[in-house]
Amino acid sequence: MSARNVAEILLPAFAGTSPPAEVLERVRANPPAGFTLFSLDNVRSVDQVAELTATLQEANSSDLPLLIASDQEGGQLIALRGTTDFPGNMALGAADDPELTERVGRATGTEMLAMGVNLNYAPIADLNTNPANPSLGIRAFGDDPNMVATHVAALVRGLRSAGVLATLKHFPGKGGAQVDSHFGLPVIEHSRERLDEMELVPFRAGLEAGADLVMTGHFAIPGLTERADMASTLSKAVLTGLLREDLGFGGAVVTDAFDMGAIAQGAGQVIDAIAAIRAGVDLMLLKGEAQDRLEQGLALANHRGIISDARLDDAIARTRALRRRAAVAERPGLDIVGSPEHQHLAAEAAQQSITLVMDRKGLLPLRPESTARIAAVMPEPKDLTPADTSSLVEPGLAAALRHHHADVDEYLVGHPPTDNEISSLYDKAVEYDLVVLGTISASLDPQQAALAEMMLKTGVPVIALALRTPYDVTAYPAVDTYVCTYGLRQPSLDAAAAAIFGEAPFAGRLPVAVSNDFPIGHGLTGGTS
């Protein structure tokens, strides 16, 4: 088959906020299925992305539109800057209102399509069953399969109702991973029976809701493959046997990015690419310097008969079906992006998610004297994994608190904080009437735990806010007042501040089990615990 046929199963990427000349030439001469836009590589503003996507589509010589994809998960991972800061999946799980989740999905999709992005690598269908999972956390709705399934289906419906293609990831469920697949190969020791009872439940629900794509997970799962050294992306037993035959999925299978450490890099990368197509992959998400080499290797593998014409034809047919579906979506005006309507929806979702886990001494709601001094402490936001855009978020805890009390001083520390920062903050904190301490995945960071313990030693009342995963209280169990926001974007911080000062209820419930004392579904409306 021709190189053009191979191009039709590729989703490459490029560097730049506008398409380079060689990319435009390729789109004119031999267009791929589409492109993936990455936040740091391609995105600066709403108008810029809209112009970029329009330029790509105008150059496209195919009679089908290009697929333009991005990771617009909400919360921790918002690849398209300038869009509404919707809370992420775990916040929606804490709110546990599927109708709200569907509205967020529809609004997210509407903003994407207005910018010319027609494929979302969302929703996450994984269960966050391992609190130490370094790459999942608040990207998941929770750890209960039935609750997660309900919200996965709702988000799929919302995205598709806006005309955006929805992707379930990461099949068959990476919640139990101990290693970030960007850097190495996780091994998940789940049996098929366990998968049926837990991990596959949200995927089934997402498929029933009409998900257009399923993204493969770069992790080994010996219970299905009998191999602890091979990612499920490369397994016919997983992609054809389980996904196609057992679950009946007829849509397109797309890989996670092929530059990740769980996949062979260097000379061996093309072997894994060939194996993935043979296993049942229809679209390859390519990133990095090896894209041309991989395309040439796949074309040669087809020419030599290693990838059959029938397998390639099948993949191309599924890819074309996606592009035909994308062609009928009507593109909204750019004024919908960040609109007041969507800002109100983000605020509503955030407010419904804020969870009061404990308030042992009845500190809340806060009613400080007008002269009271409050210290707001939090780490500088940064990306803790490549699947993260937190570094683009401005710290906003102090600003949120100042909406309710004027005398609030902001203290930002490193992530992790240094010993000098911790001791210096102790000297400052003793002069305040209250410390509001924001932590970011402190359960995995001994230095943040040390900072919290030092704040507790001041004798000043401390309100701890978990600004990412809800497990932080396990790092500083002596705290008396503990609140979970499931994110550090401004709508979540504003909602937490309103609840702390008694101007809004604590409406959220834990969507994961934090400990025996704080099981899934736990949450207070106020008072003591």
Description:
The chain is of the alpha/beta class and 529 residues long. Helices cover 38% and strands 12% of the residues. It has helices at residues 3-7, 21-29, 39-42, 46-59, 89-95, 98-114, 145-161, 192-197, 200-208, 222-225, 236-246, 269-279, 291-303, 309-327, 340-353, 397-402, 419-429, 446-457, 490-500, and strands at 10-11, 34-36, 67-70, 72-74, 77-78, 119-120, 165-171, 213-216, 252-254, 284-285, 355-359, 374-379, 408-413, 434-439, 462-466, 481-484. It has two domains: 3-330, Alpha-Beta Barrel (TIM Barrel); 354-500, Glycoside hydrolase family 3 C-terminal domain (Rossmann fold), CATH 3.40.50. The longest helix is centred in the middle third of the chain and has 19 residues, at 309-327. The strands form four sheets. It has a six-stranded parallel sheet, sandwiched between helices. A six-stranded mixed sheet has the order 11-16-15-14-12-13. The chain has a two-stranded parallel sheet with strand order 1-10.
**Average pLDDT value?**
95
Q: What distance separates the N and C termini?
A: 67 Å
Number of domains: 2
Largest sheet: 6 strands, parallel
CATH topology of the largest domain: TIM Barrel
Order of strands, main sheet, comes to: 2-3-6-7-8-9
How many β-strand runs? 16
Task: Give the class from helix and strand content and strand pairing.
Answer: alpha/beta
Strand content bin: 5-15%
List the SSEs and their pairings.
Layout: H1 3-7, E1 10-11, H2 21-29, E2 34-36, H3 39-42, H4 46-59, E3 67-70, E4 72-74, E5 77-78, H5 89-95, H6 98-114, E6 119-120, H7 145-161, E7 165-171, H8 192-197, H9 200-208, E8 213-216, H10 222-225, H11 236-246, E9 252-254, H12 269-279, E10 284-285, H13 291-303, H14 309-327, H15 340-353, E11 355-359, E12 374-379, H16 397-402, E13 408-413, H17 419-429, E14 434-439, H18 446-457, E15 462-466, E16 481-484, H19 490-500
Parallel strand pairs: 1-10, 2-3, 3-6, 6-7, 7-8, 8-9, 12-13, 12-14, 14-15, 15-16
Antiparallel strand pairs: 4-5, 11-16
Helix pairs in contact: 5-15, 6-7, 6-15, 7-9, 12-13, 15-19, 17-18
